[in-house]
Design goal:
The chain is α/β, with parallel strands linked by helices. The protein has a single domain (6-116), classed as 2,3-Dihydroxybiphenyl 1,2-Dioxygenase, domain 1. Helices cover 19% and strands 45% of the residues. The protein is built from two helices and eight strands. The protein has helices at 13-24, 72-81, and strands at 6-10, 27-34, 37-44, 47-53, 64-68, 88-93, 98-104, 110-116. Strands 1-4-3-2 form a four-stranded mixed β-sheet, covered by helices on one side. InterPro entries: Fosfomycin_Res_Enzymes, Glyas_Bleomycin-R_OHBP_Dase, VOC_core. It comes from Pontibacillus yanchengensis Y32. This is VOC domain-containing protein. Residues 2-116 form the VOC domain.
């Protein structure tokens, strides 16, 4: 088995697409409608992120996903230049060998960025 994609429900598909394209350099890979839902799949390298517009307002997200980065401090600086600040961290979790920071997406999904140390 291998990882295929992660998906989140969003209240505004266009706004969420814009956020992930501008903050994390994703690009639109595919879009379609399925059983009344509008779906956009974004891609960054081998990562796929599925955004599902939720017309029933279930978008109070408890989603949490983590992307590994090469240089967390540099990534934090780049995101700050785009007006995105961590909501937590950065933290060093030495026993795990992690250096990590957390952000919130447009639907309160938690985005963790992790550097192995």
């Amino acid at each position: 088995m291998k990882w295929h994609h992660g998906g989140i429900y969003v209240k505004d598909l266009a706004a969420s697409k814009h956020f992930y394209e501008n903050m994390f350099e994703f690009q639109e890979y595919d879009s379609f409608a399925f059983e009344g839902e509008q779906i956009v799949i974004l891609k960054h390298g081998d990562l796929l992120l599925e955004l599902i517009e939720d017309s029933e307002h279930h978008y109070a997200s408890s989603a949490h996903f983590c992307w590994e980065v090469v240089d967390l401090d540099n990534t934090i600086t780049q995101l700050a230049s785009l007006s995105l600040q961590p909501v937590e961290g950065p933290y060093s979790i030495f026993e795990k060998g992690w250096y990590t920071a957390f952000y919130k997406g447009p639907d309160k999904e938690i985005i963790e960025l992790l550097q192995r140390i």
